[in-house]
Amino acid sequence: STQSTWEKKRGSQANEAAMQVDETEAAAPKKRSRSDAKTAKTTKAPAAKRQRVTRTVDVWTAGEAAKDAPVVPIDEMWVAPQLLEHNSLAPRPATKPRKALPRVNKLPAVPLPHPGTAYIPPPTPHQKLIEEAEKLVHTRLAEENRLDVIAKRMLRRSRAPPFTVSAPLQPSQNADQEGESPGPNPPTSSLDKLTRAQRNKQKRRRKTEDELDKKRDLKKQRVDIDRIRTIVTEIAQEETVNEEELQKRKAKISNKPFTTARLGRLKFEPPVPDVLLPDEIASSLRASRNIGSLMADRYRSLQERNIIPVTLPARHKRKYRLKEYVRGRKITDQELV
After folding, report:
1. 268 DSSP 8-state letter
2. What is the pTM assigned to this prediction?
3. Rounded to whole angstroms, how far apart are CA atoms 107 and 121?
4. Rounded distance between C-alpha atoms, residue 189 and residue 162, angstroms
5. What is the C-alpha to C-alpha distance for residues 218 and 289, in angstroms, rounded to an integer?
6. Contact call for residues 66 and 58 (beta carbons, < 8 A)
């Protein structure tokens, strides 16, 4: 009986110790093996998917109106992924594009005619218009003559005989004796070096030159002090010249909308005004002679307003070779070419 009671006590103590061990193991963190750590690294928790907001927004609406735009469902099967990504972005306040620079200038399409071009013009405006036309013709003729002189001079140079050598150049006899020519850095000898006396002489000469330069600068400063009034006047003259150049630059910028730009290879030149001489003026409108062309005037107006570039009229017309054909004769392939 004593043995059985002792075995019972020992068994109950063992059960209590096992239960305590189980409780401590449950409370303490478990040690993971290397394989468990690797699997934990590779398998991550799935991230929450961001919901894509799809909306159709008017680009030209204001920012506040774009935020309040209604959400419209989009069928992702028929829409490109780039478009879906673009639509998912938050709408920004739209800005209107910059207006393109106007190429057309502000010149009138149909300017008022000169009073000297009337069918019975007043004498003073008529005479001024004739003088303007004459001056324009003289300047163009002088420019043409200048270009002709330059072209003749260039043609004369191109026709000059080429330079010829009567006898072949013979190498010098001493070339073989001298051997190879020295390179860019020939070897130096002790004879080429300067002695100490020569170096001291060079130092003294440099020192005297520096002293002379300082004396010249000092003399120039004294002269400038004496001519302060002249310097002030020179500065004032330079300021006036700079002010005039600035005014010219401003005037050029302000007149730019009313000038003709160079759109192509050629530059626009104002045409010679159509004017009649005093003896050509008729006494009535019925007897007056028509001058100028309406189509040419409209074409020049388009060029002057920067709508079309300036072009030269076609001078040479293409002439095709006359081909004869005899009825009933077969035409070869060579004749068709």
Report:
1. -
2. 0.45
3. 25
4. 48
5. 80
6. yes
